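Worked Example 4.2. Consider the chain below.
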Amino acid sequence: MSETSKTTKKKNSKKNPDDKKPRSKRGLGRLYKRNAKGKECSASSNIDGHFWLEYKVNGKRIRQRLLDDTGEPITGIDEAKELRAKIMAPIIAGDEVDKAKAVAAKVMTAEAKLAQAVEEANPPLKISDAWEAYLSSTERPDSGEATLLRYAGHWKRLQEWLEAKDPNAVFLRDITTKTAQEYATDLQQAKVSPNTYNKHITFLKLLCRALEEPARFKDNPFERIRRKQLKTNVRRELSIAELKAILEKAEGELQTLFMLGTFTGLRLGDCCTLKWGEVDLDRGLIRRIPNKTAKSGKPVVVGIPAALYAKLSETPKAKRKGYVVPKYAELYNYTNEKGEPIRRPMITREIRRVFEDCEIQTQQEGTGKPKDENGETVDTGKRAVVDVSFHSLRHTWVSIQAEAGTPQAVVQSIIGHSNPAMTAHYTHIGEGAALKAAKVITLEEPKQIESRVVPPWILEKLKEANAENSMQIITELIGGAL
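Applying the procedure from the previous section yields the following structure tokens:
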């Protein structure tokens, strides 16, 4: 055989692409036939036989003989394809779901890896850095120094509690709603007052709100913690006799402290930390920005009454530097390493001792741990309800001004107010109004108006009066009086 004929034969021996057996669509399984002897052959062949279907489920190979509705073997290819489609439909759908789940899992894994990479490059705020972050945050309110000291104490308590409760908590967002609830419970078990409890929770809400972005909080963990209802206890006013007794009993700087409270109406903290630079004896005025409203920057102007002027004048001009009552300023300003003003109770105890020495009961009957007639302490089992304190001097000052007819706007402007909504309508008062208000506080007992006795002859005349003779009797009375 020539080379040419061999080449031609090889070319002719190549299969024609059109002669390939038609393949089923991927995923529909393999459709084939079996002849009478059980031999397999192509589904498209002309050989007589019954149709079968081969497919996989979870990796397991399944061969199924195709039967019609009457249970007879299917011999037609169109009928076989139709039944194959019905059999494979739920299997194909399941595969699509599995594929979708696999894709979703890959996406979630990728997102988690991305989030982890972002956090590693820029980690969320740590608990240990939270306080400094709060101080530098532009989202926090402009609080005064005293308020920030109190906040620092609140934060320190929470931080120490967290270290003991969950040493693995590193980031601020590790504080969950459950953590916040457990801390609130701990505060309750510590038996803090409702007022102290509310201050803790309010601050922690504020801190988490201000640091929401750097901490990457999804929700403020303290937002759902409810405040406790407060039972307001208003200090009672003192009588003029009680004020005199207090000022006579107190000595030294303590007497000066009492006189400042009595004659200016300033709060204890403002009296303790009053500086000579805020006292103008030449003009008879005190000009000070109260601690409680320091963030507003608005000063109060208080006139200096004669008694206080005399007391302050006892200090030589050369020594009028720094604080007016340095001993109590030091006690009031002192804080421990936790930022807690732990020496203020010492001031309160000295003040209470003066009240008690003047036989003024400072606590409501049946509360606290009062002393009996033998000087022994009696535990009532109830939390002390303070009835009289240094703040009573402020209430008394306001009451005396009101009784003297001092305009309400003047009183409100002098005593100041911590709520901007309340002070918005206050009128600005001049120094003259402050000086005039100062003259009201003299600690003089109200003068009794002498009662006049009506002469008997006038009473007799009045008894005779009626609609007809009233004008005549009035004329007689006037004439008689003259």
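The chain has three domains: 23-122, 127-215, 252-370+379-438. The mean pLDDT is 82. Compare this with Example 4.1 before moving on.
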